[in-house]
Amino acid sequence: MKTRTTRSHSRRTSDNASDVVQVASLTPETFVPKAIFFTNGSGVHKDMLTSFELALRDADVATANLVTVSSIFPPHCKVISRKQGAKLLRPGQITFCVMARQATNEPNRLVAASIGLARPTDPNEYGYLSEHHSYGETSKKAGDYAEDLAATMLATTVGLEFDPEKAWDERKEVYRMSGQIVRTRSVTQSAEGHKLGLWTTVVALGVFVF
User: Fold this and answer.
1) SS3 for 95?
2) How many Å apart are CA 5 and CA 186, to the nearest integer?
């Protein structure tokens, strides 16, 4: 009995030591994304949840377990294509993303979801991602708004002075001329509500890759 007890204890100690080694190998850098890809999609179904699932399928991310996070674009993060990014996902993978989502079951009602990105000139600094979801906006209007949100957040971080009452196109030029914001962009999905009142869902995502 003593021999069995000793062996059992030894095995548990060994297992625990292994666990400690595995946890100790994780560093803060482990959870900083190396890349991001942008995608969008739409789905229509009588059930709201299923229309969301179909929108994710349309966006090529339905097989992942998506976890939404807040909106920091990491330093040195590379933007890759949707096709390249989707190939890196595995079924059931825990996948972090910034997501915008909107839905309607009102016939012909316009819905839009958009993700905006603003990147600083210095790759050692972080940028911003924004999510915007709206009713009654065209794809361009929603995309411009999301882009504006991201750029404005970055501008306040780097200390740029700007007039918030000016149109986005004017402020965009101010940001560009400052030399501190290198690029802004957006990805948007819009759709009209189904004419028979089925649920219509639109999604836009920035999906992180580690």
Assistant:
1) strand
2) 62
Q: Please tell me the total number of residues recorded for the chain in this structure.
A: 210
pLDDT at position 3, please? 47
Q: Which regions of the chain are under pLDDT 50?
A: 1-3, 5-14, 17-18, 20-21
Q: Give the model's pLDDT for residue 76.
A: 96
Residues 6+ apart with CB under 8 A from 12: none
pLDDT of residue 140: 96
Which phi and psi (to 5°) does residue 205 adopt? -140, 145
Q: Which two tokens stand for residue 19?
A: 């666990």
**8-state DSSP, 193:** P
Query: Does 34-209 carry CATH code 3.30.1360.120?
Result: no
- E strands in the chain: 35-45, 65-68, 72-73, 78-80, 94-104, 110-120, 127-135, 181-192, 199-209
What torsion, rounded to 10 degrees, do the Cα atoms 121, 118, 35, 210 define? Answer: 110
Mention every residue, 6+ apart, whose C-beta is less than 8 A from residue 185: 38, 116, 117, 147
